[in-house]
What we know:
The protein is an alpha+beta fold. It is about 40% helix and about 15% strand.
Amino acid sequence: MRGSDVNNIDIGFKLHLLVTLEGIPVTFVLAPARPHDVTLVKDVLDGFYYLIVGGDKGYVGQELADELLEKQGIKLVSKRRKNQKIQNSPEEKYFLGKCRKMIETVNSILTEQFHLAKHRTRTLWGLISRIISKMTSLTFAIFLNRLFGEPLLQVKHIV
């Protein structure tokens, strides 16, 4: 589908975002809302090596975790379902809690302060460029806060 073929972007989408534990956006993948999260994790982590990545229940899967560890040295820690035999260790639960809090904070900033959900675009290209500009603005606001010794994610006064 070409961008000019889209008259109105009313379809749902998911923004798969990789952020540091400080909340700094590293990369993202924009995808239709329909595909399962597991199908896109490889795209998000493409080009990254030797990381520890936290994810929610959407990223559960031993095959995926084994493949990422073997090919890229990435340890994928995801919240396990209650019916699984092996549960998360206390260290993994703590790490996942920190990840979840940071992801929710960054999502909240993008939604409430940068109005990412209200993109008002008519083309796919417009949607992508809006997301890129808002992600760049967030990253620049975080940089300014670091420069001036402010808490990194307190960007409301800058926006």
